[in-house]
Write a structure and sequence with these properties.
about 400 residues, about 30% helix, Beta-lactamase
């Protein structure tokens, strides 16, 4: 692992300044086909140097999808190439899409961003008991749950841990008063899904299908496993190269159950970048910096107060609604990642120039080369990589 990290660092140092275009300015010319060929060659070299088995890229430039490409293998053992329609696990990129869907509900007056969730639930939250994520009984006696709003749940300021099974007793509790600090929380997204389903009677799978996947023309994306995915799956690879088969996720999760393809993600990020399906006000809310990020790293999520992320204050790193935001050379940028032990994904966008790069990896080692690839497309955008991947890019 150390050798891979050192090699990646060397390559990043060589590649990061050599962006395919000069650092972006408003009105910058669009990337040309020859530049995409150069980019693809560099990606292939980086993958080979870091033993990345498979990854895919999409580039959105204003309102157009300019480049979509898959590299390497969906399954190395069977020599199945990764294609632009290979089914890949989106992981937490799901959160960005779910947040965008919720903002459509806000536009339609079905839910308020700043309305306490207590106003939507038929009974107090701690009275819901049962198995798994439907059990909120551990919050009994702590009235701070009444402070929770959709905005607080979407911008990761709920005070809840990322996942309940990471808690010592595997039960939910507040680590700080909701709305006062940032701490990445998948549980916050599970809770808002719970509110939509129990309080508003909505089916989150159906709402995501209609409002996101159908709207943006995403035929190979779903919040739940589909049998037709089996014929074109991408399997996963851990940091040590261990094979991990793509699993069939049966539960719908606002936090991270989306299966998708790079072609579909290109369509989704183009649509969301351009604000399709949202009022201008809600599109602004999506990426508006709402909660300063003061944790040293994204994970572990509950950190010592006042220990800032590397470069966090200097770039105004903050939580938006399902995305993270920061200040780069042209103004506001925003991003959303997705990660598990065999998946590495990230989308980054330049708000001023309306340009995005979306990267999906079915090998977690792809994260080693993402800073270099992003720099080639967006220039040096000052993203604090060491906050997202502290084990790979310590500063």
């Amino acid at each position: 692992m150390k050798n891979l990290m050192l090699l990646a660092a060397t390559l990043l140092g060589a590649c990061a300044p050599a962006a395919l275009s000069s650092p972006p300015d408003i009105g910058q010319p669009r990337l040309m086909p020859a530049e995409f060929e150069e980019l693809d060659t560099r990606i292939t070299d980086l993958m080979a140097a870091n033993d990345v088995k498979g990854m895919a890229i999409a580039i959105i430039d204003r309102d157009e999808i300019r480049h979509v490409r898959a590299f390497g293998y969906a399954n190395v053992e069977r020599r199945v190439p990764l294609e632009t329609d290979s089914i890949m696990y989106a992981a937490s990129i799901t959160k960005a899409a779910f947040s965008y869907m919720v903002l459509q509900l806000v536009d339609e007056g079905m839910i308020g961003l700043d309305t306490p969730i207590s106003e939507y639930l038929p009974k107090p939250l701690p009275e819901y008991t049962g198995d798994g994520r439907g059990d909120w009984s551990s919050l009994a006696g702590d009235e701070r749950w009444r402070l929770l709003t959709p905005r607080i749940l979407l911008n990761h300021s709920s005070g809840l841990a990322n996942l309940r099974w990471l808690e010592p007793d595997q039960k939910m509790s507040f680590h700080f008063t909701p709305g006062t600090a940032y701490a990445y929380s998948g549980e916050g997204f599970y809770l808002l899904q719970f509110v939509l389903e129990k309080g508003l009677g909505l089916n989150v799978k159906d709402e995501m299908q209609r409002r996101i996947f159908d709207r943006f023309g995403m035929p190979n994306t779903s919040m739940q496993w589909r049998e037709d995915f089996a014929s074109h799956l991408a399997d996963g690879y851990r940091f040590d190269g261990t094979f991990e088969p793509h699993d069939a996720r049966s539960n719908v999760s606002a936090s991270g159950s989306m299966d998708t393809t790079i072609a579909d993600q290109a369509r989704m990020w183009r649509g969301m970048l351009m604000g399709e399906g949202l009022s201008p006000e809600m599109r602004t809310e999506w990426t508006r910096p709402a909660v300063p990020i003061t944790t040293r790293s994204k994970f572990p999520t509950i950190d010592v107060p006042g220990t800032y992320a590397p470069n966090g204050p200097s770039v105004n790193l903050a939580g938006g609604l399902g995305v993270d935001t920061w200040e780069g050379p042209t103004g506001r940028y925003f991003a959303k990642g997705g990660h598990n032990e065999w998946t590495g994904n990230i989308a980054q966008c330049d708000e001023a120039n309306k340009r995005c790069v979306v990267l999906l990896g079915n090998d977690v080692r792809a994260e080693l080369i993402y800073p270099a690839i992003v720099a080639m497309v967006l220039g040096d955008n000052r993203y604090p990589w060491a906050w997202t991947y502290p084990e790979l890019f310590a500063e």
